[in-house]
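Hi V.,

Quick status before I head out on leave. The structure for the redesign project is tokenized and pasted below; the design run finished overnight.
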């Protein structure tokens, strides 16, 4: 089985269930977006939520995906940066608990926190203070960390630091590794379309939801998938309750979703990538990769947050192994 090394912003998620979206308006957070906030804003949010029940879990897009791959039994690794604090220790321990090899550096600052507001319809909105994660740099990409892996999986949020995004792709190419990337968020794509256009030709798989795909291509899902596949050899466009589209330069296939009762969409895209890349690591057909992604995505939206319990994972592994 091939091994996948994920690279991303090491964050701890603080999950908040909303009865309505008034708080999002008060905090000036566009619903469904990911907004970067500074420490002062994070402290303001914490004060605003001091009487609101919350839950904490390790997070970050590719970290969630790595944990999903680890839970499926893959050799999964993760590169990131945390602070020298209890939250950073929690993050590393959670990677290991989920079967992921951490290549995580610490520095004397705070670990990043992503406050995830979950609306009543399951949509999530993030206010993210990157903390130590923002200091991840090309100097942290030690060749030894890439050794033994077959693919590097990058989250699109890293294009906020163009030199880092370029360095990851260059390191992967130097080590003869395939590259997969998730476009992350429509507002990130809108702000850094030129950087995505620069690095996508070096990627072998691109993941996007329909709003991210449209932000990059200006096209509706099917046309966007075909357009993205002209640049990357495989393009995946997720279309919510309608499933996903998997395209190559010569093919386009619709992958049906599984039946699911949506509670929270947090982690849906990340776990789709985990399932898809698990299939890729086992040399499955693209259709099977998509079905595996759809399975994990459908299972995680039924729970709050991006983590699932042992019983649910036992069921998932049984179903995946039957594909």
């Amino acid at each position: 089985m091939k091994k996948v090394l994920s690279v991303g912003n090491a964050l701890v998620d603080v999950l908040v269930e909303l009865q309505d979206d008034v708080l999002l308006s008060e905090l000036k957070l566009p619903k469904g977006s990911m907004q970067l906030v500074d420490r002062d804003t994070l402290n303001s949010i914490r004060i605003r939520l001091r009487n609101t029940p919350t839950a904490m879990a390790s997070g970050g897009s590719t970290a969630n995906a790595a944990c999903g791959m680890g839970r499926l039994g893959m050799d999964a690794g993760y590169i990131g940066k945390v602070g020298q604090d209890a939250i950073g220790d929690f993050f590393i321990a959670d990677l290991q608990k989920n079967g992921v090899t951490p290549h995580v550096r610490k520095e004397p600052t705070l670990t990043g926190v992503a406050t995830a507001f979950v609306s009543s319809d399951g949509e999530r909105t993030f206010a993210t203070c990157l903390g130590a994660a923002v200091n991840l740099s090309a100097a942290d990409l030690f060749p030894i960390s890439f050794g033994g892996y077959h693919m590097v999986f990058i989250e699109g949020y890293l294009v906020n630091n163009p030199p880092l995004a370029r360095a990851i792709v260059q390191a992967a190419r130097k080590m003869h590794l395939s590259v997969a990337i998730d476009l992350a968020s429509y507002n990130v794509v809108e702000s850094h379309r030129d950087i995505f256009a620069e690095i996508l030709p070096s990627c072998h798989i691109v993941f996007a939801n329909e709003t991210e795909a449209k932000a990059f291509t200006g096209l509706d899902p099917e046309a966007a998938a075909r357009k993205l596949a002209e640049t990357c050899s495989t393009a995946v466009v997720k279309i919510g309750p309608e499933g996903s589209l998997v395209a190559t330069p010569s093919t386009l296939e619709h992958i049906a979703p599984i039946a699911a009762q949506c509670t929270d969409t947090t982690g849906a895209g990340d776990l789709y990538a985990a399932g898809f890349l698990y299939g890729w690591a086992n040399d499955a057909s693209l259709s099977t990769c998509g079905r595996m992604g759809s399975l994990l995505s459908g299972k995680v939206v039924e729970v709050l947050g991006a983590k699932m319990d042992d019983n649910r994972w036992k069921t998932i592994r049984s179903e995946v192994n039957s594909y």
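Above is the designed sequence. The chain has a mean pLDDT of 93.

G. will cover questions while I'm gone.

Best,
W.
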